[in-house]
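Researcher: We are triaging several targets before committing to wet-lab work. For this one, the compound of interest is pyridoxal-5'-phosphate. I'm pasting the protein sequence and the ligand SMILES. What I need is the predicted three-dimensional arrangement of the protein with the ligand bound, expressed as C-alpha cells, so it can go straight into our comparison scripts without reformatting.
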Amino acid sequence: MLRSRLATDLGRLALNLRFAWYGPTRAVFEELDPVAWERTGHDPVRLLEQCGDQLDAAARRPGYAARVQDAAEELATYLDADDTWYARSGGDASRVVAYYSAEFALADCLHTYSGGLGVLAGDHLRSASDLGIPLVGIGLAYRDGYFLQRLDASGWQHAEPARNDFHRAPVSPVVGADGQRLTVEVPIGDGRVVAQAWHVAVGRISLYLLDTDVEANLPHHRDITGQLYGGDDDLRLRQELVLGVGGARLLEALGVEVAVHHLNEGHAAFAGLERLRTHLRAGADLPAAIEQVRRELVFTTHTPVPAGHDEFGWDLAAYHLGPLAGELQVDFPALWQLATAPGEERWSQTVLALALAGRANGVARLHGEVSRRMWARLWPDRAVDDVPIGHVTNGVHPGLWVGPELAALFDARLGDDWRAGEGPAVWQDVAKIEPAMLWGTHVRARRRLVGEARDRLATQRRRLGVGTDGRGLDPDALTIGFARRFATYKRATLLAHDLDRLAAILGDDERPVQVLVAGKAHPRDDAGKHLIQHLVGLSRDPRLKGRLVFLEGYDLDLARSLVAGVDVWLNNPLRPLEASGTSGMKAAMNGVLNLSILDGWWDEAVADLAPHAEVGFGWAIGDREEGGDEHARAAADADALYRLLAEQLVPTFYDRDHDGVPHRWVTMMRDAIGLLAPTFSTHRMVGDYVTGAYRLVPARSEAV
Ligand SMILES: *Cc1c(COP(=O)(O)O)cnc(C)c1O
C-alpha cells in the first residue's frame, strides 16, 4: 500500500520537469539513490526504472514517503493555482502564446540545447509557468543533442554524441483521439515529411517537440531531427521547416487556438509563412494576409554576429520551399522578395521574420540599438531610431539558478516568493541578512564547487594520464569563473594576455586567486578548439601553480555549480557583440560579483542600477570602447582587467574583520542580489513580453 502510493507519487513527480528547478522535488529523487541519480544524468524516469526494487526499503525509511507525498501535493497545488501573476494582472487566459525555439534547456537529462539561446528558452517556459501565462512551447526532438565534450591528453576537444532516448525520459508521446501517434505533414523539397510529437510538461506549460524519425519518411528526412545544429544548410533549412511549419500545424491539429506566435530567433521564421497560408486560404490577398500575420507575430533577434543569422541560397530555398509556395499559391519569387534585404541575394530568416512580425526586439537595450543600426537597410526611408526593433532585456529563472545553499537561506528569510514572485519587493529583505550569514552560506557553495572541480579534474587525469588533479585549488581562495561558448568574440584567453601579470596575481600565496574555466567550441570551429587547448596548456604551466583549471563538459549542471560557487564572474567580450549574455545574471542572483566589459545586459545594469547601490555590485572593465584595432583593444582591456584585479578585487576580498568576513565584499554581494536579481529575472522578462508585446502585437509603428 505504502509502496504503491510512493511509486505513484514519484511517477507523477518524474513526469513534470518542475523537478529540475524546484529543489525540494529534486531532493526526493536524489535521496532515493544518490549514485543512480548521478549515473542516470539526473533522469527521474530512468532512476525509477533502475530503483524499482528499492522502493519497499525507501518506503520504510523514516520520513521519506511523507516527503514524497508532500512534494506530490505541492506539485498538484502548484499546477492548480489560479491566483497567478497573470490572473491577478487581468490577463486573458484565452490569449494563448505559441513560443517557438530550435533549442530548449529543460533538465540535465535532456540534451535539447547547445548554449545561451536554449537556456533562455527554457527559463522563458519556467517563468511562464510560474507566472501562469497561457503559453505553449514548440521545439524539435533531436536524437543527438549538442555534443558531449571530451579533451584528449593534448587538450584538444573531441565531440561525443549526446544521445536522447525519448522513450526513457520525462516526456510522453502525443496521441490523437484515435489513440494513435498524432502526426503532421510538412511539404519539403522532394516530398512530404511526417512528424510526430513528444509532450513535455514544464510545470504548467506544455512543450511539444517534433520528431521526424518515423517510418513513413525517406531516410534523409527521418534524420531531419537527428542532430541539434548538425549538418549543412540543406539540413538546417529542412529542420527549420519542421519547426516553423510543422509546429504551427501541430498546434492546429491539437486544437490549440493561438493568439500570438513568438519566434525565438530566426530559426522559427517559417511559422510566419504557415500563418500566411492560413490567412490566404481564408481569402485574403498577399498584402492583407501579411498585415494579418503581423497582428499575431512577435520576433526576438539574439545576436549581432552575422553567422548567427541563417541564410540560404536561391537554389536551395527554391527547391525546399517550392511545395510550400505552391500551397500558399504564391510565386516563389514573391516569397524570396519578402525574405531578402534590398540588393542582397540570400534568403535571410531574420529578414523574413522582421517582414512578418508586428513586434520585433533585441535582448538588451544596447542590443536593441545595435539591431536597429544593423537592420536599418530594410527601412531605407526611416531614421535609424525609428527602425521598428525594440528591446526586452533577457533574464534568468531564480528557482533554477540560485544554488541550494543560498536557496535554503532565501526560503528562510525571503519567504517562498523569491522563487515565483515578481518585482523588487520580493528581494528587499536580502538587505536584512546578516553579513556573516550570507558570507558563510556563500563559502559553503564555494567549497562544494571546489570539491566538485577536484573530483572532475582527478577523473580526467586518471583517464588521460596527464594534467592537474585539482590539488592546486584552494576552497578559500578568491575564485574567478569564466564559462561560455568559445566563440571568438568572447575572447576566452584575454585573461592570459600577459602571463607574467596573470602569474603575479594568481601566485600570491598570502592572497591566492584561482580561475575555473569551462566551455565548448563548436565542433567545426578549430580556432575555438585552439583557445581551449591553450588554456589547458596553461593549467599545466608551473608559473600558475595549478590555479587556473579547465573543466570539461560545460552544461546546465556544471553551470549551476559555477555560478553559485565562484566569487567573481568574468565576462570580456568584444563590445558590442555580446547581445545580452545571461551567465552573469545567474551569478549575480547568487551574490557573485561581475567583472565585465560594458556590453549586453551589464551595460544597462551599470547605467541604471549602480547609482542605487550602497557600495557597488561588481566592476566594469574599460569604458564602453568599441572598434579600432583588435590587438590594441585586447591589450587595453587586459591591462584594465589586471589593474582591477590587483588594485580592487584582491584587496577587497581579503580585507577581513575579526570574524573573517570581508565586510565591503559582502555589502556588494547584497547589492548584487537585491538590485540585480529582480531586474534580470525571467519573471520580469516574461512580464515585459506580456505587457509590451503579447498583449499589443499590432503596433508596427512603435518599437516594443
Ligand atoms: C547560461 C548558459 C549559457 C549562456 O551564457 P552567456 O553568458 O550568455 O555566454 C551557455 N551555456 C550554459 C550551459 C549556460 O548555463
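Researcher: Any quick observations?
Model: The first strand starts at residue 96 and ends at 100.
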